[in-house]
Amino acid sequence: MYFTSLPDHAAPGFDEQLHFSKFKKHNIIFNAESSYGHCDNHVGCLSFKTVLRGEEWYGVNRRRLAISPGRFLILNDDQAYSCHIHKGESTRTLSIFFKKEFASAVLHDALQHEENLLDDPFPNPEKILEFSPTLHSLESPLRLQLSGLISALETSEGGAGSIDEHLVFILHHLIGSHQSAAIHSKNVAAVKPATRAELYRRLCVARDVLHSSYMEKLDLNRISEVSCLSVPQLIRQFKAVFNTTPHRYLAEVRVRRAAELLEHTDRPVHEITWDCGFENVSSFCRAFKLAYGVQPLHLRKKGA
Predict the structure, then answer these.
(1) CA 293 – CA 85 distance, rounded (Å)
(2) pLDDT tens string 67-126
(3) Residues 6 or more apart from 17 whose CB is under 8 A from it?
(4) Which keywords does the record carry (predicted)?
């Protein structure tokens, strides 16, 4: 099922039970533009969340996660969460909810050897891979798959069978992202695999904080406290895994968010400066020119 608008849970007569019952029967895709939306408490199926413009906020496991263009989040089956789009900025969201039996079949296919699939082609629907609820980078192969899916949806090309084909390959990419975490964790400076895995998990928490609290006055002590890593360990291991320091990573997050606001809103530069966590307009302009080679207003004139 395909929707181009988000449901209004607060609308008079909205049947929440009927709405969520559809998620057990179909793969469901939302490709919607909205300036406001919220769902305070939902327990859903395996799902993929990203935005093509703007920001969408999720509450997962008592953590606040901001999804911005170029990032995505995977939520597990039966995962409780909340989601919000703040009033004011037009946001285009893309969410895919995978029916449990469909996801189970794709995961079974992706994780088994071909010879095993010949002997056991049909999955146990109760077995679903557990994904880590952290923000991931949206790499080019997955971007291409999503573009193909959107094109097929907008042109009604091939019907439901064609859409399911796209979803199979998208799920394979999500499984690859999950498996790549084990590869990235090898860059953690630790001997025991279990220690590396735990350190990597905490580093991902630190990275999520940078993406989701960029507008605040973040310091290393705050990031250290949330991720349960000492400041020296945080800096050392963050650099080893992500090839940059937390401070530099935060600066990149802030300037990318500022560039998006410049391109897609008419908000004044001084507002963007405060909302993206810069101390003053001068420091914002210096950081922006270092990243993009031009002053902020030049980018806005170019996009006008």
Answers:
(1) 31
(2) 999 999 999 988 899 999 987 778 999 999 999 889 888 888 887 778 777 777 776 666
(3) none
(4) Cytoplasm, DNA-binding, Transcription, Transcription regulation
Strands of 17-174 (E only): list them.
28-34, 37-44, 47-53, 56-60, 63-67, 71-75, 79-85, 91-97, 136-137
Q: Where are the beta strands (DSSP E) in the chain?
A: 2-3, 28-34, 37-44, 47-53, 56-60, 63-67, 71-75, 79-85, 91-97, 136-137
Question: 């300037």: which residue's tokens?
Answer: 255
The 8-class DSSP code of residue 129 comes to: P
Q: CATH fold of 249-303, please?
A: Arc Repressor Mutant, subunit A (1.10.10)
φ/ψ of residue 77, rounded to 5 = -60, 135
Q: How many residues does the chain have?
A: 304
Tell me: the pLDDT tens digits for 32-76?
Answer: 988 887 888 888 889 999 999 999 999 998 899 999 999 999 999
What CA–CA distances, in Å, run from 193 to 103, 133, 177, 180, 186? 28, 20, 19, 15, 8
What gap in Å lies between CA 286 and CA 19, rounded to an integer? 48
Tokens of 89: 């900025």
User: What whole-number distance in Å separates Cα of residue 80 and Cα of residue 49?
Assistant: 14
Residue whose tokens read 């009604």: 156
Q: What is the CATH architecture assignment of 2-182?
A: Sandwich (2.60)
User: How far is the C-alpha of 158 from the C-alpha of 174, rounded, in Å?
Assistant: 23
What are the pLDDT digits (tens) for 129-159?
A: 788 889 999 988 999 999 999 999 888 766 7
